């Protein structure tokens, strides 16, 4: 049941929050029958403290069964709230956070290290950030970590990042003037607490990475997925061209390689990419002509795209959304279609059909 009530937040602005006490369940007539082995899209029957804003170029980070949503505000919205979504009960909550709360932003990266979320970059309107913040999801406290002296990446947004061996690895993005294709690491330690500095303090350290092999062209709004010791980069755009390519960066040897693709190839920017077993599930995005809602399966063994029949009602066409995998379901949050941004949640039930054809033990060669 829809409605609103005054926030109980101790924050000064005390904004109104949307609250729904009963989930909105789909009516039987709205649901098509489907075999149990088929993947199936549906809209999530959400309830609780619903987000009071839409979500565009936000981040969603899964910690246990809870998806933490941060950022994604538009140029007119100064909101910097954090929302939590329970992937088991479908309940939204709106926790208060304390500490060094970052400014409103979108198109940042949010990388999970233990139970801490490392947020880097992003921006709002014409402003681009080069700052790093840490959200401890246990204490709900934001901190601005100490950074050791030395080079650090330029302000950027629309970059991508993964966590590997105590470091956040950042690739590409844009700084407002040009697209980028540099690689940086932020050494954060195994638990996100930093490394020991020269005077014994806990700090974090940026370092630019010298890679070998032909590297991807400069781009933003691509995706980065960690598969073993390999960062897989898919698509993106330099502001002029929308890319079809798939790249591997071996994070041990620091060698780039490009995947030789067979037809068909797919142009994609502002999509999402989620590993499901031996596949990367690529949802939506823009193909240089229009926004889409299709689901592409990139096979990590054959290194090619595979068609797969998906039933149910897919999300409307969009990009700049976020997806996470939680207990045999892919959850999709928000997005933007060029005119409107969304605040909805959709669920892709993977079912047996998503897993039966998979290879359970594999490695990819970069």
Automatic annotation (TrEMBL):
Residue ranges, compositional bias (Low complexity): 1-13
SMART domains xref list: Kelch
Bilayer-crossing regions: none
S-adenosyl-L-methionine in keyword set: no
Organism in which the protein naturally occurs: Laccaria amethystina LaAM-08-1
Protein name listed in UniProt: Galactose oxidase
Residue ranges of the region described as Disordered: 1-31
Pfam families found in the cross-reference section: Kelch_KLHDC2_KLHL20_DRC7
Family matches, as Gene3D superfamilies: Kelch-type beta propeller (2.120.10.80)
Key words, A-Z: Kelch repeat, Repeat
